[in-house]
Amino acid sequence: MGNMRRVAVVGAGMAGLACARALHATGLQVDVFDKGRRAGGRLATRRADGMQFDHGTSYADALGSAFGAVLAGMGAAGDAAPWPAAGPGRWAGTPGMSALARHMEAGAGTIHVVRHAAFLHRDVAGWTVRHLDAATARPGTVVDSGGLVAGPFDAVMLALPVPQAVPLLRAVPHRFADDAARAGMAPCWTLMLAFIGPTGAHDLPQPGGALAWIARDSSRPGREVAPECWVAHAGPEWTRAHLENDAAAVQDALLQDFAAVTGIVDTPAYAAVHRWRYARTDRPLGVPALWDADVGLGVCGDWCLGARVEDAFTSGQTLAGIVLG
Predict the structure, then answer these.
(1) Do residues 130 and 42 both lie within one domain?
(2) 99 to 16, 46, 91, 133, 159: CA distances (angstroms)
(3) Which of 163, 172, 206, 297 has the smallest number of CB atoms closer than 10 Å to its CB?
(4) Vertex 161: Cα angle to 164 and 4 (nearest 5)
(5) Does the bond joining 173 to the residue before it have cis omega, within 30 degrees of 0?
């Protein structure tokens, strides 16, 4: 770790939060920058008219002891619980998946939300992060003007989706850009529905048509039974083919497939769609993280290892461990 005192982490999803927590626990000053209104990334819960939908990551499970201990800690704190309807070993956030991010936020340092990291610069004083109001900047935009400049930092950790990390790395420039570009992430259109009365459908119907995942969100632990809320994710192939389509047209098409697959033909009391441009890793890099000690630059994310929440945690935790030596 040497003389390292202050670190920037760009991205406050599970990987970024895991990395930030591990670094901050050793006494380092950590600043986390994220474009979202709150930390968590795809650990997201949509709330509308008293209803809630876990429209990002569906659940978390643990194959290893490290993340298993984290899930157990979340359970003890009331932030997560087993979700029997989803299958053995699968946990849901309580009251929503965003609770997992809130749990990880504690001890992660200072988190700056609604800030788009637009440029990284390194000189003899260290690294600086130029960040803009995320409401005015398209994700992936790289620009060396405007906004605010934070730093200097002794090191910078990028915990972003591949298509957002690569432009920043190319602008540095750094060889990690070519490494990261070998990984791939798939998009996803997500449908959210609510019905006034019970539908009688299975909690997790067999997917079909354009839909790759369908779940009665009301079956999650600690949820209100009524109104009955549902979340359905379109598959990557269908989403890629319709990525730029009008949201209303996408909603109509997915609603038709939802009705055909589930047998629920009632008119929903609430319906909405959300487009995730970078929803799921479909081509992992194959290494837990990347670290260049010579310049103090690290890269992590679920895309390093796979598509699961644990993969993101492991990547962030591993990067912090390498940095700390």
Answers:
(1) yes
(2) 16, 12, 12, 25, 19
(3) 206
(4) 85
(5) yes
